C-alpha cells in the first residue's frame, strides 16, 4: 500500500520524491506554539488556551508535522474532555510505562485536521513540505486544536482538490468511522452494494450524513432515521426514505417497510433490542453498531477485566444473533491514509460533500464545544485554526 501511495503521491504532486531529510522539528527550531489544552477532565471550564504548548517533534521516521489550517469537533472530543476512555488510551499512549511523567496532561483534543505538510521523517517519500493534506489523528495522540500536529504518514492523505481546508476538516474522522463500519466491518463496497436495502439510525449527525452519501454513491437504497427538521437535508444527500423518529413509535414505523440487508446504528441503547428483527434472515444481513461498551468497561473495571467483559459481551451477542440468521458486529474509528485516498476520490468526483453546521474561529473553541454539547447539530462543527479573530 505504501509503495502504491508513494507513486500516486509523486504523480499527483508532479514531482519526484524529495531527497531524504533528517528528523527535526522545524527549520525555525521553535519550542512552543498556541494550543487549546486540558489539564484535568471535566466540563467546558477545563479548556485552557496557551501559547506555550510544546512544539511537536518527529520521533519516528514515518511521521510528518502538519501546520493545522482547520480542525473539527466530534462527540469523542466531548467524551475525552470528561475522561471517557482514559484507561485504555493511557495504556496505548505508554504501553511499556517508559515515560518518567505518569500523566497525559496537558492534553490537546481534536481529531480532524486539514493543513499543510511542514516537515517529513526519514522514510516518508510520498509527501513533501508544502503538500495540502487531511487526516484523522487517533485519540491516543495529541490532537489538532493546535497550530501544528504530528501524524504518521500512513494516517495522512492528499486533501480533496475541490474542498477548502475548512470544508475538508469536517470529513476525516466521521468518514473513516463510517468507512470502518460499512466497508471493513460490514463488508459493503461499490461492487456489492447495488440494490441493497440499508437502514441508518441517527442519520443527521456527522457519521450519518457521510454514511448516507457513501452508500448512495455505491448504489444502495437508503432509509434514514432522523428528526423531522433534518428530513430536507437527508433528501438532499440522496436518502430514498426518511423516517421521523419523533412522529410515532419508530419500531412500528420501520416494521411496515421491507426488511433490510444492512443496518448502521449510530444511536445504540434500546434500538439494539428490536433493530435486528428488521434484517433479512439467513441472507448474510448485518447489523453494525458504533455504540459499544469497550472503553467504558476498561474505565470501570481496569484493562484486563474490562477487555474480558467486553469479549464476553460481544461474543454472546454475536452467537445469539447468528442463531437467528443475522450478523451482529461492533465497529470503531480506524485511522487510515489509504481509506482517505478513496474518500478523496469520491469527494472530488462530487459523490460526497461536506455537511457543516457551523464554523468557529480558533479563539472560540470553548463556544464550539458548547455548540456540540447542545446536540441536534446538522453536520459538523468546524474550527478555522488559522483565522486571526
UniProtKB/TrEMBL annotation:
CDD domains xrefs: RTN4I1
Pathway linked to the protein: Cofactor biosynthesis; ubiquinone biosynthesis
UniProt-annotated stretches for the region Disordered: 1-26
Enoyl reductase (ER) domain segment(s): 42-383
Keyword Nucleotide-binding: yes
MF-aspect GO terms: nucleotide binding; oxidoreductase activity; zinc ion binding
Catalytic function, reaction form: 3-demethylubiquinone-10 + NADH + 2 H(+) = 3-demethylubiquinol-10 + NAD(+); 3-demethylubiquinone-10 + NADPH + 2 H(+) = 3-demethylubiquinol-10 + NADP(+); a 3-demethylubiquinone + NADPH + 2 H(+) = a 3-demethylubiquinol + NADP(+); a 3-demethylubiquinone + NADH + 2 H(+) = a 3-demethylubiquinol + NAD(+)
Domain of life: Eukaryota
SMART domains xrefs: PKS_ER
Compartments, record wording: Mitochondrion matrix; Mitochondrion outer membrane
Pfam families, per the entry: ADH_N, ADH_zinc_N_2
GO biological process: nervous system development; ubiquinone biosynthetic process
Keywords: Acetylation, Membrane, Mitochondrion, Mitochondrion outer membrane, NADP, Neurogenesis, Nucleotide-binding, Oxidoreductase, Transit peptide, Ubiquinone biosynthesis
Database matches in SUPFAM superfamilies: GroES-like, NAD(P)-binding Rossmann-fold domains
InterPro entries: ADH-like_N, ER, GroES-like_sf, NAD(P)-bd_dom_sf, Quin_OxRdtase/zeta-crystal_CS, RTN4IP1, YIM1/Zinc_Alcohol_DH_Fams
GO cellular component: mitochondrial matrix; mitochondrial outer membrane
Biased segments, Low complexity type: 1-14
UniProt record similarity statement: Belongs to the zinc-containing alcohol dehydrogenase family. Quinone oxidoreductase subfamily.
Name the UniProt record assigns to this protein: NAD(P)H oxidoreductase RTN4IP1, mitochondrial
Amino acid at each position: 500500500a505504501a509503495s502504491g501511495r508513494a507513486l500516486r503521491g509523486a504523480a499527483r504532486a508532479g514531482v519526484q520524491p524529495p531527497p531524504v531529510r533528517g528528523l527535526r522539528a522545524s527549520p525555525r527550531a521553535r519550542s512552543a506554539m498556541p494550543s487549546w489544552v486540558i489539564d484535568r477532565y471535566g466540563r467546558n471550564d477545563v479548556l485552557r488556551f496557551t501559547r506555550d504548548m510544546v512544539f511537536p517533534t518527529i520521533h519516528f521516521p514515518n511521521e510528518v508535522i502538519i501546520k493545522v489550517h482547520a480542525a473539527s469537533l466530534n462527540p469523542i472530543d466531548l467524551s475525552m474532555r470528561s475522561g471517557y476512555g482514559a484507561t485504555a488510551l493511557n495504556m496505548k499512549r505508554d504501553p511499556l510505562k517508559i515515560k518518567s511523567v505518569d500523566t497525559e496532561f496537558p492534553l490537546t483534543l481534536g481529531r480532524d485536521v486539514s493543513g499543510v505538510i511542514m516537515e517529513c521523517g526519514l522514510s516518508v517519500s510520498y509527501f513533501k513540505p508544502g503538500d495540502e493534506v487531511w487526516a484523522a489523528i487517533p485519540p491516543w495522540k495529541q490532537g489538532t486544536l493546535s497550530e501544528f500536529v504530528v501524524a504518521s504518514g500512513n494516517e495522512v492523505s492528499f486533501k480533496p482538490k475541490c474542498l477548502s481546508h475548512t470544508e475538508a476538516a469536517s470529513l476525516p474522522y466521521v468518514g473513516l468511522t463510517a468507512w470502518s463500519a460499512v466497508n471493513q466491518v460490514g463488508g459493503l463496497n461499490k461492487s456489492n452494494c447495488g440494490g441493497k436495502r440499508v437502514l441508518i439510525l441517527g442519520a443527521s449527525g456527522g457519521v450519518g450524513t457521510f454514511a448516507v452519501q457513501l452508500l448512495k454513491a455505491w448504489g444502495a437504497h437508503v432509509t434514514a432515521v432522523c428528526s423531522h427538521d433534518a428530513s430536507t437535508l437527508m433528501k438532499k444527500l440522496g436518502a430514498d426514505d426518511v423516517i421521523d423518529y419523533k412522529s410515532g413509535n419508530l419500531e412500528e414505523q420501520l416494521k411496515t417497510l421491507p426488511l433490510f440487508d444492512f443496518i448502521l446504528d449510530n444511536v445504540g441503547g434500546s434500538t439494539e433490542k428490536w433493530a435486528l428483527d428488521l434484517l433479512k434472515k439467513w441472507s448474510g444481513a448485518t447489523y453494525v453498531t458504533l455504540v459499544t461498551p469497550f472503553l467504558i468497561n476498561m474505565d470501570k473495571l481496569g484493562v484486563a477485566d474490562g477487555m474480558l467483559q467486553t469479549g464476553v459481551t460481544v461474543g454472546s451477542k454475536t452467537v445469539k444473533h447468528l442463531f437467528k440468521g443475522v450478523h451482529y458486529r461492533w465497529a470503531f474509528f480506524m485511522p487510515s491514509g489509504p481509506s482517505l485516498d478513496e474518500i478523496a476520490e469520491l469527494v472530488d468526483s462530487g459523490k460526497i460533500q461536506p455537511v457543516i453546521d457551523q464554523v468557529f474561529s480558533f479563539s472560540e473553541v470553548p463556544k464550539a464545544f458548547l455548540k456540540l454539547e447542545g446536540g441536534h447539530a446538522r453536520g459538523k462543527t468546524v474550527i478555522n485554526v488559522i483565522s486571526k479573530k
